[in-house]
Amino acid sequence: AGFTADGDATNFTRRRQTELKHGRISMLATMGYITPEITGKLPGFLSPSTGLKFADIPNGLGAISKVPAAGWAQIAAYMAFCEVSQDQSPGTAAAAGDFGFKVLTSSDPAEKEKKLCAEIANGRLSMMAIIGMFFQDGLTGSAWGDWALYTASPLR
């Protein structure tokens, strides 16, 4: 797409950091989309004051309209905390995506490089996966998509 045609290393580094962050978020989102389908939902109440149980929340995009505004405020507040709780200025470890959570590490530099490359590749895959799940859910009403429910298909 020509984003790196200018050869600016600073812009490339910023884009790589953004890609890493979006990939990690997408991996979590993909697992969050799949997990309730496989394991079921948490017991108890999402909002005790309104009597809303976790079991009352549909999976997928249908959940957006069911979660109370206070729940969305809590999610936004946590996201903001995660963004501002560490110094991510250029040259810091956090700027390079190292937040101290060492799952993908190794004392062997070649093995560590292999794991980090796999993280980027899996992040790219999960970005495509979550967008595909959103698209399919939007058309069929389910992330797992019973395409028989999509009667407006141009392929019919």
From TrEMBL:
Name by which UniProt lists this protein:
Chloroplast light harvesting complex protein
The keyword Plastid appears for this protein: yes
Q: Which domain of life is it from?
A: Eukaryota
Q: Name one GO cellular component term.
A: chloroplast
Q: Name one GO molecular function term.
A: chlorophyll binding
Q: Where in the cell is it found?
A: Plastid, Chloroplast
Q: Would I find Zinc among this entry's keywords?
A: no
The record's keywords, sorted A to Z, are: Chlorophyll, Chloroplast, Chromophore, Photosynthesis, Plastid
Pfam families, alphabetically? Chloroa_b-bind
Q: Which residues bind chlorophyll a?
A: 19, 22, 83, 119, 122, 124, 136
Q: Where along the chain is chlorophyll b bound?
A: 24
User: What is a biological process (GO) this protein takes part in?
Assistant: photosynthesis, light harvesting
